[in-house]
UniProtKB/TrEMBL annotation, chain B:
Pfam family, one: PhoU
InterPro entries, sorted: PhoU, PhoU-like_sf, PhoU_dom
Annotated ranges, domain PhoU: 21-109, 125-210
UniProt name for this protein: Phosphate-specific transport system accessory protein PhoU
Keywords annotated in UniProt: Cytoplasm, Phosphate transport, Transport
Any Gene Ontology CC annotation: cytoplasm
UniProt-annotated location(s): Cytoplasm
Length: 268, 240
């Protein structure tokens, strides 16, 4: 029996983890209020990193630093360094629009554009100049929807509004839209919290498949989800990174009492 | 127990498991002690009581299983809670087996006392049983206090039981060679001794489980072994 190329690549990346993104002494301030304190966290390539912690712990803030979504908030200030492939993404030379094409995002509530399924997918590639002909657009729509596991469900109604899909389908459409611009990293902010268990299972299955080609960082309030989909887990509390490690260890025998209390439901 | 869960009924469910296991532990201890006492005193009535008590442990084990499965389904436990629930399932099985072994000793009481002079033979067995019962009692304390240190020291001590069992094995073999009329009773006593030695092994299993529940780490696979009876042979008649 021969291992597939993907499996080989995966097992190789397990042995020598490549760091895709690295946060060094990251602090975030909203006005005078500090939301993150000197966070040092690595995001490994082709793996899923889960960020967990109670509400207000800073996990979403950290996630939003990874593609400079916090720039959209006027009073927000980020210090420290975040690199993508060893390049500081807060350096002046960085084009934020290009950065967000490389580091895509999927939000808590499915938010398709009020346009057709087809237009939802081609919008990004078109503004980034990645596609121009009809054939190229058709191809990227099919490929993105395939990867998001949605193609068979919507192939006969590509020109109907994306908002007409079910919640779970809308979220997978948003994932397809994020994939369409060929990102390297996908950030997910509670991608399943508005979905039913079956739609959640489909998205989780998708996350596992996407890991082969992308690096994923996911914020989730569901401990079980973090345990199921991620390889590494980072626990935040009051703006501090409490603990980071292999997911299996985090959920069976965490090092800190804080993590233990949080994941077993003994908080506060 | 660590501090309380936000959902208090979760704590009640976990406490139920702990309470049920400590009851089972008490019953198992008493059954073994009574079975050995019945053997020593040729008390068939007491032996009969031990045999009927085994049902309590069978039911206890089933109840722990059922409740544990429900907690897992309902709470999706993590970390120390998960280890505790899995540990409870394992400990319930070990205690149920201890009960079976105690029952088996009780069943042999009548057969052993068909022999004229079993007293002196039974004495060695008494000592073995004392050691095994101490192990069992202490391991239940280790579980109640979640003490990995105590659990580890109990496991180390299993060696002693194995050594005494080996010497008892040798002694019984000698009696059988002395007088073939002893064979029936000695064979039964040999099984009783083996049962008690097995009880020590179950105490060791529980100690390992307690250690895992408390620390999240497994003890090293190798543990002291001093039971040499598997390779022991009687010298041919006339050789001595």
């Amino acid at each position: 029996m021969s291992e597939s190329a993907t499996e080989k690549a995966l097992s190789a990346s397990m042995e020598r983890p490549e760091i895709k993104m690295r946060g060094t002494n990251v602090s975030v301030f909203y006005g005078a209020k500090q939301a993150l304190y000197d966070v040092n966290l690595d995001v490994r390539e082709n793996s899923v990193t889960a960020l967990i912690g109670p509400s207000g712990c800073g996990k979403s803030t950290f996630l939003r630093c990874l593609n400079r979504m916090n720039d959209t908030i006027d009073i927000c200030r980020v210090t420290g360094e975040i690199t993508l492939d060893d390049e500081n993404i807060y350096a002046p030379a960085i084009d934020v629009v290009e950065l967000r094409a490389r580091v895509g995002m999927v939000f808590q509530k499915p938010n398709p554009f009020p346009k057709s399924i087809y237009e939802n997918i081609v919008y990004g590639p078109r503004i980034h100049g990645q596609v121009s002909t009809r054939a190229e657009m058709d191809e990227i729509v099919e490929r993105s929807l395939m990867k998001a596991g949605l193609f068979n469900e919507v192939k006969d109604r590509l020109h109907e509004p994306g908002t007409g899909l079910s919640g779970g389908q809308q979220q997978r459409l948003c994932i397809a839209r994020a994939i369409a611009v060929s990102p390297e990293v996908i950030l997910m902010d509670e991608p399943c919290s508005a979905l039913d268990p079956i739609a959640t299972a489909k998205v989780e299955e998708l996350i596992d498949e996407l890991r082969v080609n992308y690096t994923i960082v996911i914020v989730t309030h569901s401990m079980q989800q973090a345990a199921r989909v991620s390889q590494r887990t980072a626990m935040f509390h009051l703006g501090n990174l409490v603990e980071e490690g292999p997911t299996e260890k985090m959920f069976t025998n965490p090092d800190t009492k804080l993590t233990q209390d949080y994941i077993t439901g003994r908080f506060g | 127990m660590p501090e309380a869960h936000t959902v208090t009924s979760y704590d009640d469910e976990l406490r139920f498991l702990v309470r049920r296991l400590s009851e089972m532990g008490g019953i198992a201890e008493r059954m073994v002690a009574d079975a050995v006492a019945a053997l020593v005193n040729a008390d068939t009535a007491s032996a009969q009581r031990v045999i009927s008590e085994d049902l309590l442990l069978d039911n206890g084990e089933r109840e722990v299983y059922d409740k544990a499965v429900i907690i897992i389904a309902k709470r999706q436990p993590m970390a120390s809670d998960l280890r505790e629930i899995i540990g409870s399932i394992r400990i319930a099985s070990d205690l149920e087996r201890v009960g079976d072994l105690g029952k088996n000793i009780a069943k042999r009481v009548i057969a052993v006392h068909t022999m004229a002079q079993p007293r002196k033979l039974v004495r060695g067995l008494e000592h073995l049983a004392e050691l095994a019962l101490t192990q069992l009692k202490e391991v239940l304390d280790a579980f109640a206090t979640r003490s990995p240190t105590l659990a580890n020291s109990i496991r180390e001590r299993d060696e002693e039981i194995d050594a005494i069992y080996t010497s008892l094995f040798r002694e019984l073999l000698t009696y059988m060679m002395e007088d073939p009329r002893n064979i029936t009773a000695c064979t039964h006593l040999l099984f009783c001794a083996k049962n008690i030695e097995r009880i020590g092994d179950h105490a060791t299993n529980i100690a390992e489980t307690v250690y895992y529940v408390a620390t999240g780490e497994q003890l090293a696979a190798e543990r002291p072994k001093d039971d040499e009876t598997a390779s022991m042979i009687a010298p041919p008649p006339g050789a001595a």
